[in-house]
Write a structure and sequence with these properties.
- The chain is an all-alpha fold and 194 residues long.
- The protein has a single domain, classed as Photosynthetic Reaction Center, subunit C, domain 2 (Orthogonal Bundle).
- Helix content is 49%, strand content 2%.
- It contains 7 helices and 2 strands; from the N terminus they run ααββααααα.
- Strand 1 and strand 2 form a beta hairpin.
- The longest helix is centred in the N-terminal third of the chain and has 22 residues.
Length: 194
């Protein structure tokens, strides 16, 4: 009888502790990253995104007052779409034929387009720069890559930027006037967090 009473007291306490622990665990809402991702790796990735967009804090995407990282804010939903888009771009880039070059397939991340700005630049401030870029990519040796890139841009605009008020992406958004995707990044963004 005494054991039953203890169980009646202890069981609700254990259930309450589990509920409290789960409520504070923002991982419940992980929809892009694997649920078993190491906490340090997750924080690293979040900080790279924050720096890439030039935003000051986690509150840009996460509900912090009251703190509940599981809430799907508009910016968090957008971030998930952008992560899916980045994965799709990287998949397309890795499928490219690199047999004629010693270079690896390029990869993109948030910084490739955002460059520390919340809204990426879709057109150059000076149209002359885009004109020079367009002239350079007309060379025969770039023809198939440019055609594939243009198809990818059309697909991205159709799938990720389809609403009438969306800023559309262009080749400029990622290339910024360079023939190759630049290796520009946030710097060694992970160094601060290892």
């Amino acid at each position: 009888m005494r054991a039953k009473r203890h169980l009646l007291v202890v069981l609700p306490l254990l259930l309450a502790l589990v509920a409290i622990a789960r409520a504070g665990d923002g991982r419940r809402s992980l929809k892009f990253f694997p649920r078993d991702i190491d906490e340090r790796d997750l924080r690293c990735k979040m900080n790279v995104m924050r720096r890439s967009l030039g935003v000051k804090s986690c509150a840009h995407c996460h509900q912090t007052e009251p703190r509940d990282m599981s809430v799907d804010t508009d910016n968090k939903i957008t971030a998930r779409h952008m992560l899916a888009m980045t994965a799709e771009i990287n998949s397309a880039l890795s499928a490219r034929d690199t047999s004629q070059t010693t270079r690896r397939s390029p990869r993109v991340d948030c910084f490739t387009c955002h460059r520390g700005e919340e809204m990426p630049e879709s057109r150059p401030e000076k149209p002359e720069r885009e004109r020079k870029f367009r002239e350079a990519v007309r060379a025969e040796k770039y023809r198939s890559g440019v055609a594939a890139g243009e198809r990818l841009v059309e697909k991205l605009n159709r799938e990720y930027f389809s609403s009438p008020d969306s800023t559309k992406v262009s080749c400029w958004t990622c290339h910024r006037g360079e023939l190759e995707l630049s290796a520009v990044s946030v710097g060694d963004a992970y160094a601060d967090f290892k």
